[in-house]
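Annotators were shown the component list below and the corresponding predicted structure, then asked to write short factual statements about the assembly.
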Amino acid sequence: MPPEQNNLSDSRGNHLGIFFFRVMLKIIGPTCTCCFVWCIAFFYALFDRTARQAAAPYLNRRFPNSSRLHAWWHFYRLIVSQGQVMILAHWLRSGHQVPIREEHPERLRDLLLTKDRGLILLISHVGCWQAALTYLDTYQRPVNLLIQANTNANVARMFSGQNFKLVDNRSPFGGLLECVAAINRGEIVCIMGDRQAGESESAIRMPLLGGSIMIPLSPWLLAARCGCAIVPVFTLMRGMARSIDFYFAEPIHIDYDLPVKPKSSCFEPSVKKYALELEKIASSFPYQIFHYDTSSAQQSIQET
Amino acid sequence: MDDATLKFRQEFKQKLISWLQLEDKQPEDIKDDEALFGTGLGLDSLDAVEIVIALKREYGIPQNAVDQKREIFTTFATLSDFVQNYQQNH
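Structure shown to annotators:
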């Protein structure tokens, strides 16, 4: 069973705070609630040392040579953005919609229209990733979400009753056999591409922002063994929860048909494409990156 | 244990080593009653996927047959016996 890993969003908010924001959302709507997040986040930015420590490896990489004041400002912006994304996720969860702008939707659509085989949608802790799942409902294909169990409760509440199946990565064999079966049935399997589910999960180290990140190998092995494509998708919040940009990266195909288990080096060129996309997003939308492999980042700082 | 089972297990160990690229293992290193996953042989979930794919490719065992009997992954003996029985019955 993989040990649970924390990202920034796992630790944010308590029941009272969430209730407060829900009431605000109902009364004044998402945009005004997002304005209010600037005030609440200010106190987090001042006093939440745990969050600051968690974000520091990423922010130090993304904004090197920042003064202390600038570093604090970047952290504040990150916390604000994270709070606003949570507001947007709540808004979507309660059945509302926001305008969507798609970039290269044909990359996903063509695969779904032309192939019976399923595919892997590689999501990341970037922007409002939950929105990607709402969007998939339009494709009339069953969707499976392989997810770390500690976030299951929230996600289950968000998507219950729809065409979604949650696959718990704490189930035997990390839920991967369920994913193989789903892909073979022609279904979509969503997997978090940027978070290793515990140190025991096989992963490959990739350069990112001058440091490195551990990318889990499971989606890549599944794609190689099921003969399906991987489509990285990034969902970015625009304005104060006003709209969402979907960016579909170029589908990645892995050609491997040897009768032996592929070594991790076989996946390196493919995984690198994803890491480059992740880096592009971090460069363009620095405050919408909500998970960074802090341990490896610290390690790589020591290495260098 | 009859000779056929003994022979099958020996061959199956060799195949398992080959499929999973267990380069530091010899067939005699794999104990029949040793756990395959976690402690024991130390396989992981990626290895489970590889085994399921290999069983389909080499023995024509569909995944749903494996899914219905997850306990076959407990030890080498349970997995080997499952494959041998499947071969005999299909």
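Statements collected:
1. Helices of chain B lie at 3-19, 45-59, 63-67, 76-89.
2. Chain B has a mean pLDDT of 92.
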